[in-house]
Amino acid sequence: MSVQPRRAYQSDSATATVRLSGVGFGYAATHRTLQDVNLILPAGSFHFLTGPSGAGKSTLLKLLTLAEHPLTGTLHLFGEDATMVPRRALPAFRRRMGVVFQDFRLLDHLSAFDNVALPLRLAGGKQADHAGDVEEMLDWVGLGDRMDDRPPSFSGGEKQRLAIARAVITKPDLILADEPTGSVDAVMAERLLKLFQSLNRLGTTVLIASHDEALARRSGANVLRLEGGQLTGGGS
Question: 3-state SS of the chain: helix, strand, coil percent to 5?
Answer without folding.
Answer: 35, 25, 40
